[in-house]
Write a structure and sequence with these properties.
45% of the residues lie in helices and 23% in strands. It has 351 residues and is α+β, with helices and mostly antiparallel strands. The protein has three domains: 104 residues, 2-Layer Sandwich (Beta-Lactamase), CATH 3.30.450.20; 75 residues, Helix Hairpins; 164 residues, Heat Shock Protein 90, CATH 3.30.565. The strands form three sheets. A five-stranded antiparallel beta sheet has the order 2-1-5-4-3. The protein has a five-stranded mixed beta sheet with strand order 7-9-10-12-11. Strands 6-8 form a two-stranded antiparallel sheet. Helix 6 packs parallel to helix 10 and helix 7 runs parallel beside helix 8. The radius of gyration is 29 Å and the shape is flat.
């Protein structure tokens, strides 16, 4: 085996894309992952015509001129999205006279997670800053101009109470979301009666429905639903969030309806399933919002949601609970005709 064959064998055994740039500034050897990334025809071409991006060109040039490792980011876009690579360029031979070897590490998931974490912190900070600013402002007013004004004092204290309750709901939902994410990979093991859980949820929410002038109706399942594997507390949280949203945001329609179905086969879950649909007959939601409804802090109408006491986390919690139960949430809505949110659960395999 020649030295070149040995080097090719070593490079082929590395899972990361690797390529070399020779003293003539042309791409020398590439392992199979690099060939998949840049194409087999890249070998022998000048590295400027293959890599093109200024950051990686500078890194390779720097590694050759300084005979020291250099690092860069390489971005590649295709039909599926953008991939980000961390590129390490190391000189080959004394003074880089024999060229540079560059490795490409896919760090897309790491950078995406970092961005999500930064966005989450920024969103939480924004959500807390607004009520805190209001409370601090009212405290200053109560200590000053409104000190001797009982009417203003009562009004401001009522607003402060509402803002404090909003912060309390936000903290509660954040803790719930954190707990759900922690348990997301743990499959529930107990069988649950979905119809009974929904009846319990509707009983507790009936005063809210009556206050909003909404008729809350449960259509009994016929035939009875098979039980599903689930966590009773988390399933109750799913149905509470869905029914409460329907009452609050669909109250213009005057009624909310719960329906059940047994599905011989769900095309996405790939097997028999059980579904629970929460239907309102209100204003509906434009379809452009569907794909973002389960994002944290996403609101179709932010001002109205805050007036209703929403934290923007309810459907995100629902999504993670459904993931834990290996189910899915189906959303359908038409403007002026209302919205339906359907929780679909796989039926357990026969014992």
């Amino acid at each position: 085996m020649t030295d070149a064959d040995l080097v090719r064998s070593v490079l082929a055994g590395v899972p990361l894309p690797l390529l070399t740039v020779g003293p003539d500034e042309r791409i020398g050897l590439m392992n199979p992952p690099a060939a998949n990334l840049f194409g087999q025809s890249a070998e022998g071409r000048h590295f400027l015509t293959v890599l093109r991006q200024p950051s990686i060109i500078d890194a390779i040039t720097d590694a050759r001129s300084r005979a020291a490792p250099s690092e860069a980011r390489y971005h590649r876009k295709d039909h599926s999205g953008e991939t980000v690579y961390r590129v390490m360029c190391s000189p080959l031979g004394q003074g880089g006279a024999q060229g540079v070897i560059a490795s490409f590490e896919d760090v897309t998931s790491i950078e995406t997670a970092g961005q999500m974490r930064r966005d989450f912190v920024a969103n939480v900070s924004h959500e807390l800053r607004t009520p805190l600013t209001a409370i601090i402002g009212f405290i200053d007013t109560l200590r000053g101009p409104a000190r001797e004004d009982p009417v203003a004092r009562d009004r401001f204290l009522g607003i402060m109470e509402g803002e404090a309750q909003r912060m309390n709901r936000l903290v509660h939902d954040l803790l719930s979301l954190s707990q759900v994410e922690t348990e997301e990979r743990i499959r529930p093991t107990e069988l649950q009666d979905l119809a009974a859980l929904c009846a319990s949820v509707c009983h507790s929410l009936r005063p809210l429905a009556e206050e909003g002038g909404v008729a809350l109706t449960i259509v009994p399942p016929d035939p009875p639903l098979p039980r599903v594997l689930g966590d009773a507390d988390q399933l109750r949280q799913v149905f509470t969030n869905l029914v409460e949203n329907a009452i609050k945001y669909g109250r213009d329609g005057g009624r909310v309806e719960l329906r059940f179905a047994t599905l011989p086969r769900d095309p996405i879950l790939g097997g028999p399933a059980v579904s629970v649909t929460v239907q309102d007959f209100g204003a509906g939601i434009d379809s452009i919002h569907f794909h973002r409804l389960t994002e944290r802090f996403y609101r179709v109408d932010g001002h109205r949601a805050k007036q209703m006491g929403g934290t923007g986390l309810g459907l995100a919690i629902v999504k993670h609970i459904m993931n834990r139960h290996r189910g899915r949430l189906k959303i359908d809505s038409r403007l002026g005709q209302g919205s339906s949110f359907t929780a679909i659960f796989p039926q357990p395999a026969p014992a």
